[in-house]
Amino acid sequence: MYLYHDRDPLFLKTMLPTLLSWSNRRQDTELLVLCTGNPPEGVGGIEKMLVTVFPQNRNNYLQKIRFTLERGYQYIIKIDEDIFLSESILEYMFQNKELLNETVALMTPTVSTSVATCGAFLEEFLKEDRGTRSVIEQEFLDCHYPTDLWGSNYSSLNEIRNISPDYWNENLFFELVSRLSTYYKGIHPIRLSAKAQIILGLYCAKNARRLYATQPDGLREVRSPYLTNHVFMTSARWYEFALSEFPNDGYDEVPINLARESTKSKFLYLHQGFAFHPMYNIHHSTAIEGPGFSMKGKKIELEIVKEFAKNLL
Asked: Could you give the maximum distance between any two Cα atoms of the chain, in Å?
C-alpha cells in the first residue's frame, strides 16, 4: 500500500521501480498505489498494480487505509509517499511476517528521520562520518521545545539541556518524553529542526546507493515511547484493531501507538535496514534561510529528492 498524496511525481516515479520489481517477484502480493486525484502520467495499466483515485482533500489518509483493509489481506506493508527504500527491506519484512503475532505488532525499517529510529540511523549509517553526526546532534542539543504544538505542551523537554548540556542523550530524551501527559508523543528534535533534516537529507542523497545496498541483519525492539508512521508492516487484524479501538486525528499514528501501549505489544525495527525520509511536512511552508538563499521547505525537500534519485542511477 503506497499512499500518494501531493508530493511531486518524482517521489512516486523514484519508488515505483522498486515496488514493481519486488511485487512481480512475489506472486503472493498485490501492489496498491492509492492516489489523491489523478495519478502522475505513466502510472497505471501495469499488471499486478492497482491504482485507485481518491478525492482531492486533506482527509483521505484513513480512507485509503480502510480501502486496503476491506480487501481482505492478511498482512499489509504501508509506505508513505515520502519514503525511499530498497527491495531488500520489503523482502526482509515479508520473510519475517510470521513474527507478527499477539506479542509483536509491527516492524519498520531504520528510517532516517523517524522519531523511533533516527538515533539508530545516525549510529549505523553515519558510523564512518562522526563529523556530520556531531553537527546534527548539536542541532538536537540546541532544539527548543514549545509550549503549544499540536495542542500539547512540550516545554518540559527543555530540561534536557540542563541535565545533559554537552552531548545528545537520546535515552534520557525518551525518558522525558514518556513522562508527558499527552498521547502526542511523536516529538523529537529531528522533527522540529529543519536544519538537521536538510543536513541529514543531503548526506543520504549523496550516499543513496549505499543506503539501498546495505542489507538488514536482524530485528531489534523499538525502545522509544512513540513511533512515527512513515512505513511499516503489520497484520491486517492488528491494524483494524488499532484503528477501531483508539482515537485518531485523521491519521493512523496515534491509534497504532495507543494500541501498542494498551496491549504491551512490541514494535521491531530492521537493524541495518535503512529507509530515507527527507523532511517532515511541518516545514513545507516555512521559508528556510541558508548561505545566499531563502527557500520554502517543500522546495528544498524536492531538491534533495532530485539529488537522491540522480545518485541512485
From this structure: 58
Could you tell me if residue 203 is left (phi over 0), alpha (psi between -120 and 50 degrees) or otherwise beta?
alpha
Q: What CATH code is carried by the domain that includes residue 13? A: 3.90.550
Interatomic CA distance for residues 300 and 5, integer angstroms: 18
Give the C-alpha distances (Å, rounded to integers) separating 149 from 153, 182, 296.
Answer: 7, 11, 20
The pTM of the full predicted model, rounded to 2 decimals, is 0.95
- Alpha carbon distances (Å) from 192 to 13, 205, 221: 28, 20, 24
Determine which helix (DSSP H) or strand (DSSP E) holds 26, and give its type and residue range.
Answer: none
Q: How far does CA 280 lie from the centroid of its chain? A: 9
The helix or strand, by DSSP H or E, that contains position 148, with its residue range, turns out to be none
Domain range for 304: 2-312
Number of structural domains (the chain) is 1
Dist CA 99 CA 220 (whole Å): 12
Do 49 and 1 form a contact (C-beta atoms < 8 A)? no
Burial class for 167, CB neighbours closer than 10 Å (0-12, 13-18, 19+): exposed
- Please say whether the dihedral angle defined by the alpha carbons of residues 104, 110, 111 and 116, taken in this order, is positive or negative: positive
pLDDT digits (tens, 9 = 90+) for 226-279: 999 899 999 999 999 999 999 999 999 999 999 999 999 999 999 999 999 999
